[in-house]
């Protein structure tokens, strides 16, 4: 069993993937159902497909993240996003097991925008919502690194912790800044030439925040 590009601790996710090598061929849907039944409530296996192509990890080129900033004025968030996108580089610091490391958060961001606030938390006051597409580079740039970049470029400092959720990950279309389904090549291969291979790829999507 191999997990690919797991979400950072403390974030929610609707798009986690794993590969499972089996000793014999199994029906993908039956495998999905068995795995789903064995997991706690809130962790749902939504799809399982036979791996007709190789390199799932190589197809996870970028992630789509949503960041909810409670008690942040959307206008302030828009100004911070504009300043971040206008910068050629945005250096941020993160403490790693090897000590404090400085790297460019701007290079990893393929797309960053503000969204209209949703009325899903009545009484919480103002709220800004960011949607961003982050390339999977080395070193990895996480949503909290982008928030550090917004603080560095525009002094945007949310008064409460951000709520972060990964919405998707997969192949990146650089021209449009969109992320496409990484399992599509496996579905196409299965339709073109059904295989008896015993390797399956399961897509796991936890509901809510971790």
TrEMBL record:
UniProt-annotated stretches for the region Disordered: 187-210
Sequence ranges assigned to domain DUF2344 in this UniProt record: 1-143
Xref: InterPro entries: DUF2344
Top-level lineage group: Bacteria
Ranges in coiled-coil conformation: none
Pfam family, one: DUF2344
Low complexity composition bias: residue spans: 190-210
Protein name: Radical SAM protein
Organism for this UniProt entry: Streptomyces violaceusniger
């Amino acid at each position: 069993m191999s997990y690919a590009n797991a979400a950072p601790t403390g974030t929610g996710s609707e798009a986690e993937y794993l590969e499972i090598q089996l000793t014999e061929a199994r029906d993908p849907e039956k495998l999905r159902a068995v795995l789903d039944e064995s997991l706690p409530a809130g962790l749902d296996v939504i799809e399982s497909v036979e791996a007709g192509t190789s390199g799932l990890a190589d197809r996870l080129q970028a992630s789509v993240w949503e960041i909810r900033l409670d008690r942040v004025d959307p206008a302030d968030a828009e100004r911070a996003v504009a300043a971040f996108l206008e910068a050629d580089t945005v250096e941020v610091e993160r403490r790693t097991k090897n000590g404090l490391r400085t790297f460019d958060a701007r290079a990893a961001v393929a797309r960053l925008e503000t969204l209209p606030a949703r009325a899903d938390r009545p009484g919480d006051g103002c709220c800004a919502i960011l949607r961003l597409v982050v390339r999977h580079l080395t070193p990895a740039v996480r949503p909290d690194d982008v928030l550090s970049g917004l603080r560095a470029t525009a002094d945007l400092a949310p008064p409460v912790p951000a709520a972060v959720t990964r919405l998707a990950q997969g192949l990146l279309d650089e021209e449009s800044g969109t992320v496409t389904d990484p399992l599509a090549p496996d579905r196409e291969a299965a339709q073109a030439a059904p295989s008896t291979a015993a390797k399956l790829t399961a897509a796991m999507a936890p509901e809510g925040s971790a």
